[in-house]
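DATA SHEET
Item: assembly model
Revision: 1
Owner: S.N.
Input lines:
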Amino acid sequence: MSVFEFLMQPGSFDVILNIGAIVLKIAIVVAVAMFHVAYATYFERKVIGHMQVRMGPMEVGPHGLLQPVADMIKLFFKEDVIPTNADKPVFYLAPVISLTAALSSLAVIPFFDGFVIANINIGLLFILAASSVGTYGIILAGWASSSKYSFLGSLRSAAQVISYEVAMGLSLVGVIMMAGSLNLTDIVRAQADYPTGMFAVPQILGFFVFIVAAGAETNRSPFDLPEAENELVAGYFVEYSGMRFALFYAAEYIGMMIMGSLAVTCFLGGWTIPHFITGVLPFLDYVPGIVWFLLKLYFTIFFYYWIRATLPRYRYDQLMAIGWKLLIPLALLNILITGIIKIAI
Amino acid sequence: MVEWFFGYLAGAVILLSILVVLSRNPVHSVLWMLLMFLHVAGLYLLLNAEFLAATQVIVYAGAILVLFLFVVMLLNLKEELRIKRFTGGWPFRLLIAAGILIILKKVLDGFKVGFKGPWSIEAIEQATHTKALGKVLFTEYILPFEIASLILLVAIIGAVFLAKKRLRT
């Protein structure tokens, strides 16, 4: 069937309209996410600056508000340096894998009621799968650069992500059991019907495990061993420059936002607020859901900045001990408790 | 439409499998394998088995293949050298391969559609694949499931025992 015949068929107009709507949705989500990435870097520097009694960026624009724009222009015009011994195709591919995996997770996150690009039944598993594919970007970047620093960084990252993914997956099992679904929209709805309005209260153990594991999964401090700057210069992306470096940077921040959004949708009630609050203050019902979602998301991201400004980095053996000897048993205990309560009630 | 998707996925799986074997750089082999696993996940999706597709990516691409990469990188394997073969006799091997192919053809010709259970495509679509799989796995096939988990537990304990340093008594 040629394209023309397809267009002449009855009903094909609806198909095109449908595809157009999806493309538009994707464009909006990606643009908003990229804007957030730019300003997440600004606020990270600002927040940590103020916590350490500094001002943070102040020069470009009022209060340094245009700093992300300046950074972007600088990264865009920087020379693209590729090491002589690098495995070129893999070197080119690594940042693309990282960013694509991070961006594709955005597709299943419900930002407010009814707004999700792909409302699939296995949304939660999809995010876990995408994050496990994203690891390849890091491992391959380290290997393809043929530099000892980046290689060590990528090996550390591989071991770290494998260990913490287990804990993260197990910590979400409690939520799945309570909601009875893997669909993120259904999970948010189940929380709205729950007396406390969010699963963070009954699933406090799972929430703790998830927050710690998410920090390790996105290489955030205090688990930023893959890029420990005082041992490995910058870890796996030390040989990357210009736009390729920017892709890694964007992937890292989007990864952080995905983990934040996952915490919001699975534990903090997504776009809803608990009924007992709207019972006291009924006018809050008129606030659109996206506002609540973003407020909760900003809080989780602020929390990660806060942790970074407060805690020193763990040693590698401590990192492994926390993952295997503390978080995984805790997550298993959480599943057991949830199961017993589910049967009892 | 579905046939086209299947054709693409099946063709890609075959091509990528060949590339895995033919790559001279072991890391590239692992990468082709990753791409192949993703296509296999696509095949599962085509069969309405979304849970299996996600698990395929999480378990095979996310865990097993990362360990492969780990080993390949730590052994620091170099590119394979092209050297002359020490043994001849490829016609004989070709004969064996052709024989296997004929047997496979016979097997496929004798293929009969098995009996139909209660889980038709419509029933699975209605109950969602994850729920259907869970129900069947934890009621009808609970014994095989438990046996499989016991075998895995034994393997884990064995690995821990082998890796553990000998403690002085």
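QC remark: The mean pLDDT of chain B is 84.
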